[in-house]
Amino acid sequence: xxxxxxVINFDELADAxxxxxxxxxxxxxxxxxxxxxxxxxxxxxxxxxxxxxNYSDLITALNDLGVKIDTLESAAGIIGVxxxxxxxxxxxxxxxxxxxxxxxxxGGKLTDITYSLSAWNYQDTWxxxxxxxxxxxxVTTKEYGENKHFESFYKVNTGDVIKLTxxxxxxxxxxxxxxxxxxxxx
Length: 186
Fold this sequence. Notes:
186 residues; 2 domains; four-stranded antiparallel β-sheet
């Protein structure tokens, strides 16, 4: 078993480690005795290896890093409130194009779109447009729902129409679900 890749509350962990390293482990169990020398030896080894660490400076540096990340997010325009808006559409058993149109309720960035069908056919395709800009075209349907995450978020303004178009080449009836994820300006 290894250590976790991150610590939820570093202050509590740092205090506990510091206390164990400074005071050792005291075991008081009546009518039972055993040696803690192995544990104490391991703790001493840990203490010897990290004795130069100033926990206050480390915590300050981590907090400063958090502030810098917040500033970077703000400068990059990737802060706000993440909202997801879902819609459903019943597709009839006839060929043609069927669309879900969604009007952005506020300005922000389109971060993801998730869509799925109750049944699929490899001939059917998807298109996604924001206003007159095509973000993807003729994407083949898959057996399972899909999520398209935009590595470079797409800016949307209040009222911009996001249109997911399903081309039903197979002519089968089905239900279409779509979720639009927008990081709204705060």
